[in-house]
Amino acid sequence: MTRIAAIAFVGVNITPKTNWSFLRVQDSDGRIGWGECTLGGQEAGMAAEAARLAANVVGEPVDARNRLCRLLPHAPGGLLAHTVRSAFEQALWDLAGQAMGQPIHALLGGRLREKIPLYANINRGVAQRTPDGFAAAALRAKAAGFGGVKLAPFDPLVWEDPDRAAYAEGLSRIAAVRDAIGPDVALMVDCHWRFSPGGAAALVRDVAPQNLFWLECPVAEANHAATRRLRHMANDRGMRLAGAESLCGLAAYAAIIAAGCHDVLMPDIKHAGGHEEIRRIAALALTQGVEIAPHNPTGPLCHAHSLHLCATIPNLLPLEVQFGESEAFFTLAPGHALAFDAGSAHLPMEPGVGVGLDEAWAGQNPWVPMPRPWLDPRLG
Questions:
Q1: For residue 378, is it within any domain?
Q2: N or C: which end of the chain has fewer CB atoms below 10 A?
Q3: ∠117-312-333 over CA atoms, to 5°?
Q4: CA 373: distance to chain centroid?
Q5: DSSP summary character for residue 222
């Protein structure tokens, strides 16, 4: 019987504002499976959690996913522990696929599509965070063939702050991007939970002329009543409401589906519990007419695993990808070519996840502490 032989956390520095984090799982036959657990600013904690996980599962059978990867919502480690556990589930699927000579999507019941539609998150690829800087990045994404663009225009705003200059600047960034890409490219705006319910209601009215495809995460996820009201406001103006990128497990998503909070759910394979948990979430969402657009703005392992996942989801909207942050996205994970193809991605057909990790390069570029988080530190 093949067993888990070793687990290691691997953190890699990519840019002065970005680390990517991975979990390396080796089995007793010498195969290596990979998962991604990127969670900005939490690298030291994840390394400790990976060591704790290893102490509990090394020696267990690699095919015991249902038992070993069960996500417990009340776990005191919270999002950090769930993120490491999600990467562990990814890596075990990678090992299973390698052992059987099959891609992960084949083990999940087979693909519904061979190419995965994508949209470009330009946020981390914008060096000059002016309206013109955002517009230039959006034009690069359009030229690369993407039919959808997303930006997070409101840093450093938190609605309780008295200064509203950042709000006006954010509206100018959105307008500049819409003017640049024209009416035929879908435009999404990510708010990173920066607004109060009243502030978000004003935002819905103010951005309506820009014909957004969706408005994302305007208020705290736990505020179901306000989120539901905002969804109705957005729908009345031709917009979807999207969110729930950092929740973990079916139970958390079941509550917001039942409350009618969102048109689009954005579970992240790094946090939500891995392949099987997100497929459960997607199936429940399907019964209520809710669509799935997985959150995927980080590294190549999350992207590769997300491609396999997306191949099996019927109620799928385009998958998020980082655009313009680092060429390491395309070189750090050798194997299946991760290059974007006119706003889509080809599905890996290689065994397992289809990519590995350049461990030599990763070892030469270890993760570094970030003096200031990418998001406002008040938002984590």
A1: no
A2: N
A3: 65
A4: 17
A5: T
Residue 124 structure tokens:
């981390």
List the structure tokens of 326. 């680092």
For 188, other C-beta atoms within 10 Å of its C-beta total: 24
Judge if 97 and 241 occupy the same domain.
no
In a domain, 365, yes or no: no
Same domain, 209 and 286: yes
Q: How many CB atoms lie within 10 A of CB 378?
A: 11
DSSP 375: S
Total domain count, the chain: 2
Residues 97 and 110 in one domain: no
- Please give the backbone phi and psi of residue 13, each rounded to the nearest 5 degrees, phi first: -85, 130
Whichever domain contains 283, its CATH number is 3.20.20.120
- Cβ atoms < 10 Å from Cβ of 315: 17
Q: Which CATH number characterizes residue 86's domain?
A: 3.30.390.10
Q: In terms of residue numbers, what domain contains 90?
A: 4-101
How buried is 272 (Cβ within 10 angstroms: 0-12 exposed, 13-18 middle, 19+ buried)? Answer: buried
**Cα 249 from Cα 246, distance rounded (Å):** 10
Residue 208 DSSP one-character state: G
The answer to whether residues 131 and 164 belong to one domain is: yes
CB 95 within 8 A of CB 62: yes
Residue 73, preceding bond cis, omega within 30 degrees? no
Q: What percent helix, strand, coil does the chain show, rounded to 5? A: 40, 20, 40
Q: pLDDT tens, position by position, for the chain (380 residues)?
A: 999 999 999 999 999 989 999 999 999 999 999 999 999 999 999 999 999 999 999 999 999 999 999 988 888 889 999 999 999 999 999 999 999 999 999 999 999 999 999 999 999 999 899 999 999 999 999 999 999 999 999 988 988 888 889 999 999 999 999 999 999 999 999 999 999 999 999 999 999 999 999 999 999 999 999 999 999 999 999 999 999 999 999 999 999 999 999 999 999 999 999 999 999 999 999 999 999 999 999 999 999 999 999 999 999 999 999 999 999 999 999 999 999 999 999 999 999 999 999 999 999 999 999 877 666 666 65
Tokens of 327: 């060429």
359 domain residue, yes or no: no
